[in-house]
Amino acid sequence: MIPELGQFALILALLLSAVQCVLPILGAHLGNRALIAVARPAVAGQAVFVGLAFAILTFAFVTQDFSVAYVAQNSNSVLPWYYRFTAVWGAHEGSMLLWVLVLNLWTVAVAAFSRRLPDDFIARVLGVLGFISFGFLLFMVLTSNPFLRELPMPADGNDLNPVLQDPGMIVHPPMLYMGFVGFSVAFAFAIAALLGGNLDVAWVRWARPWTNVAWSFLTLGIALGSWWAYYELGWGGWWFWDPVENSSFMPWLVGTALIHSQAVTEKRGSFRAWTLLLAIFAFSLSLLGTFLVRSGVLTSVHSFAADPKRGLFILSFLAIVIGGSLLLYALRAPKVAGGEPFAAASRETLLLVNNLMFTVAAAMVLLGTLFPMIGDAFDLGRISVGPPYFGFMFVLLMLPVVLLLPFGPFVKWRSGDFKAAFRHLRPALYVLPFALLLAAWLRGGDLSAWGRAYWGVAASLWVGLGIVLYALHRWRTLPRGRRYTPEMLGMICAHFGVALFLAGVLVVEATSVEKDVRLAPNQSVTIGTLAFRFDGVKEAQGPNFRAQQGTVSVLEGDRVVATLQPQKRVYARNQQPQTESAIDPGLFRDIYVALGEPVGDDGAWAVRVYVKPFVRWIWLGALFMMFGGLLAAADRRFRRLPEGAPAPADANTTTATGVAGATA
Amino acid sequence: MNARLLPLAGFLLVLALLGFGIWWSGTHDLREVPSPLIGKPAPTFSLPLLDDPSKSLGSKELAGKPYLLNVFASWCVACRDEHPILMREGKRLGIRLVGFNYKDPADDARRWLAQYGDPYDDIVADLPGDVAIDFGVTGAPETFLVDADGIVRYKYISPITPQVIATELLPRIAKLQQGAK
Asked: Which 140-169 residues of chain B touch chain A by CB within 8 A?
């Protein structure tokens, strides 16, 4: 009975989302206050029912109601209680429900924190969000109902995919979705602005903190995914360029461009049309990512079940949402072009380079991801391009970004001076030769492959010192109180994160030591000053798996640095073996041990030991970027009322069609 | 032409491609792409062994007995799904299982095998991917069944499942071995 209530809740939410979409937009168009006023109650109602549906599905998992097909497929009676919660989003139907839930959370936040915005504008924003929600709810009700019954009820369920039985999986998808779906707010603002033709700079100011927060969540989500892949998937890689990763990375790249172009538009009025377009792109790529992962067109070769009905639905939805937005853009955007002119040497130019590189990088990733299909379409066979393509192209495209990043803050808006900026940055160049020494030291004096480590340290120092120099510059030249606004601190923090990230990536790529050895009990292998002693393998019993657990003692001289217990697990239900590596994490190096296969009869195993210097810096850098984004979003400047009427660039921009808007 | 229509035009291209993708995956069984090679002789090749690049293995050495050629790579996520099945059922096949390491640095491949196990009788390494082109390899994992005369009998794209082994591979292998007697 209870699961049917969940189904009803979904259908009611669907109806309310239709109301939330149609009436407020119509009201804003006609200037009818009553219709506009429907928006917020509809948002609240929809959120209540979506929340209810989600709670009911969670309840079904916790109480192990295996008569619900989705529950039976993705959990079983020995699944530990905490994974019963996360199993809710362990497969397709539930993750769609999570998607809609997150969208509703964002929509409620927009409805709650937008009291000072013109009513007709916010009515359109909520209407657009309502339409997106409508699409996804309809998708669930028609093709992906998580509440379907399976009768007769199976005695026990299948199991949650063992790969997903991990703490990292508890937080990774919700964070990722917070980011994905968060871009819908910037998107809705852009569409509302296009619909209303009311494109003064104010909408960008309102949209900025939302974009920043969404981007921060997405950054965290991707970093968590990469961290999870590092310790769970296997052999110490942290990024694989597979279609699922790419589909979260593309919105991130465009989102990064969007954050920067929004800054230009808000402060200088330039790039207006471009900012609109990026807002549309960022969310479109989020939707496209959902499509690619869910429809099976790409991953079908990779063990996902393809369902053409689902694929067709999402494709139609994409066509309507993205096609409609871009058509609207084509029709309306010319009116709002304009902005202040800027010289070739200016911060605008630098940010334009940033935008260009990030957008092209996103297009590059999209092309690579779609390549197998392009191969099919032109009858060339299904060709996959692997990491070699992505890695090379991405480094190439990011090179100018890394080179120019430190200049950004030093070069003034409108008309700046590269030479002066370079003078400020010169101390960073003086430090670079020391980078060589540092890199050589990191290699333990081994200069055979010093190139990449050197460039890594150099690039990282260039960006990091550049940002520190800028922070010092502000300290010296500005009065107290104006030195570090939250927005400025956020920028400094995020860019410093870039430096940490670069150090992590390039140092770990250049200086990791990886050894695969056959070890009998009490044999050891050494890497640098560390000795790894294999103490043998024992049986261990988990809640729903059996494991063979090895013990490896890591010694430095006579001191035990760490005792690591990697496992080979076999889950009871589906007999799928799963490697659990054991890691001794550290700020400057990770020690990573994993079990291979048993070899020989003397209790010997193939054991893999890695020493990965600075690998944590990859995720530390991402955390800094995330905090930077949040910090900037916290700036109160974005929440102030626009001073008087925002200066229009030309007469067209203030033709407000709404009535209520005039009172703002 | 209005430049502001360009994004829409670009999107329509992508949309057409995605629509094609759905149509294509609906009308084709992605797992069983008809290969022009089926029923024809497998390409002649000779590749270095993964474990000992100074030695090589090729169509000449393999001729005379049927063998199963399994394309894999350490960078291939789907191969990880397939691997335990090969580990478990590889011996049941009753024919030589040749690993075809595709565009993969040897160190990565060895590390990968050390972790997940090595089900193969022999492994050849095709780092540049030239032989893979002759075979019409479109990605990893892919599996080719070649008979004693060097004729490709069957090709399967995507991870092998126990079901495929039972319903597709074993009957064909049984037939090949009967024919040989």
From this structure: 140, 157-159
Q: Are the C-beta atoms of residues A50 and A9 closer than 8 Å to each other?
A: yes
B20 and B52 belong to one structural domain: no
Sign of CA dihedral A286, A291, A297, A302: positive
Shared domain check, B140 and B98: yes
Residue B109, domain extent: 41-180
pLDDT single digits (tens) B101-127 = 988 888 888 888 887 888 999 999 988
Report pLDDT digits (tens) over A315-329.
Answer: 899 999 999 999 999
B78: contact with A, CB 8 A cutoff: yes
Q: What is the ipTM of this complex?
A: 0.76
Taking the C-alpha atoms of residue A370 and residue A289, their distance in angstroms, rounded to an integer, is 11
B153 plus B85 within the same structural domain: yes
Nearest-neighbour CA in chain B from A32: distance (Å): 32
The answer to whether residue B34 is domain-embedded is: no
Closest residue in B to A235 (Cα–Cα):
B112
Q: Looking at residue B154, which CATH number applies to its domain?
A: 3.40.30.10
Is it the case that residue B31 has pLDDT exceeding 60?
A: no
pTM of the model: 0.81
Phi and psi for A464 in degrees, rounded to 5? -65, -50
> Do B46 and B127 reside in the same domain of the chain?
yes
Report CB contact under 8 Å: A383, B139. Answer: yes
If asked whether residues B108 and B163 sit together in one domain, one would say: yes
From chain B, pick out residues whose CB is under 8 angstroms from the CB of A234.
Answer: 80, 115
Chain B residues touching residue A306 (CB < 8 angstroms): 25, 30
Number of domains in chain B: 2
Asked if the model's pLDDT at residue B35 lies above 70, the reply is no
- Kindly state whether residues B9 and B85 are assigned to the same domain: no
> How close does chain B come to A618, measured CA to CA in Å?
20
Are residue B21 and residue B48 in the same domain, yes or no? no
Of all residues in chain B, the one with the smallest CA distance to A245 is B77
Q: Which of A339, A331, A361 is nearest to A265 (CA)?
A: A339
Q: What are phi and psi of A596, to 5 degrees?
A: -95, -120
